[in-house]
Amino acid sequence: MRNQSGETRRVFRAFWAWHDDEEGRWLVEMARQGWHLIKGGILYSFRRGEPKEVLYRLDYRVFEDLGRGEYLRLFQDAGWEHVCDFGPWHYFRADAAAGVSDIYSDTHSLIGKYRRMLRVIALFGVAYLIALANNLMPDHFHTDVIGMIGIVLPALAIVLVGYVIVRLRMRINKLKHAAL
Amino acid sequence: MTTKTSSDRRSQAFLPLTEATYWTLASLATARHGYAIMQTVAAASGGGVRLGPGTLYAILAKLLQQKLIRRAGESVSEGERRKEYMLTPLGRQVVELECERLESLARAGRQILQRKVRT
After folding, report:
1. pLDDT, tens digit, for every residue of A49-80?
2. What whole-number distance in Å separates Cα of residue A63 and Cα of residue A70?
3. Which of A74, A101, A113 sits opposite B34 (nearest CB)?
4. Which residue in chain B has the smallest CA separation from A71?
5. pTM of this prediction?
6. Is the separation of the CB atoms in A58 and A38 below 8 Å?
7. Residue B79: domain span
8. CATH number of the domain that B57 lies in?
9. ipTM
10. Contact pairs from chain A to chain B, CB under 8 Å
11. What average pLDDT score do residues A27-40 get?
12. Which of A43, A88, B40, B118 is the least crowded, having the fewest Cβ atoms under 10 Å away?
């Protein structure tokens, strides 16, 4: 059954943190087909509407240092509509014909975005390392299934965190290189 | 050779500024809110420099933390409140030192170029 208006659609999709530009391009493609983002991040929802040429940008901020109101006000004043948040990810949309400037106008601040991701993921890495070290302590060490899970899970998480750190560093280095 | 004061040295530590930071600081000689900064910079640069909101937000947060700018109340227009910012004396000193640095850089560069043409 299809409703004429207010029809929504849910899409499951996952992107790596350093693929935020690709995620934006996918959302642009969805908008071209008339699907406009309502909620982003893994389980996306879209509302059916007229096909439209828009731009999407994702910003990453854990804390809005100057306050959330000022943060969103600045983007809105610059022509970027705040669509939704997904944790520290903030989704913005602008009319492609409006001639807005990109949310990051220099490489220095764009690198800052990936550095913020790096800091957060590094904290997770430290937490998993502590968990692993703790579970390997002689008085906590068990050879049963629970004991093994306590070692394998944090170990896998550390490998994943390591991979994310390497990829984010590659992204930053690529940006640095392009700036020289 | 003039001896540098300690406040000069303190300001020197912030240099060189990124272009976006330079423009932001310069525009805050008078109290302005974020959008006014973008408009002022775009106009002063002949439309050549357009600060993105993500870039400007990061710069404002950093400059506040470094105490190069301070909050300067709010402006209200058409029911919309916008926080304003302004240079601190330290911020003014930093942007003035950067102007001097850029001027001497341009002067020296031009001299070298002209010498090359003559020989």
Report:
1. 999 999 999 999 998 788 899 999 999 999 99
2. 12
3. A74
4. B57
5. 0.90
6. no
7. 16-118
8. 1.10.10.10
9. 0.89
10. 69
11. 97
12. B118
